Amino acid sequence: MTRSSKFSDEFKRDAVAQLTERGCRVMEVSERLGVSASSLYAWKKKFAKAPSGAAA
């Protein structure tokens, strides 16, 4: 049984882009978006490797 995420992949990729492309700090993005820092680190690990538009 898989757990459904309340955040879309697009939302997650945008959050990762704020970290990697815009140079924002994890805590800043975490507070602004209302997600945990650990989620941001997990999304960064998942999406930073995948080419843009590719399924991870």
TrEMBL record:
SUPFAM superfamilies per the UniProt record, alphabetical: Homeodomain-like (SSF46689)
One Pfam family named in its UniProt record: HTH_Tnp_1
Gene Ontology terms: biological process: DNA transposition
A GO molecular-function annotation: transposase activity
Official protein name in the record: Transposase
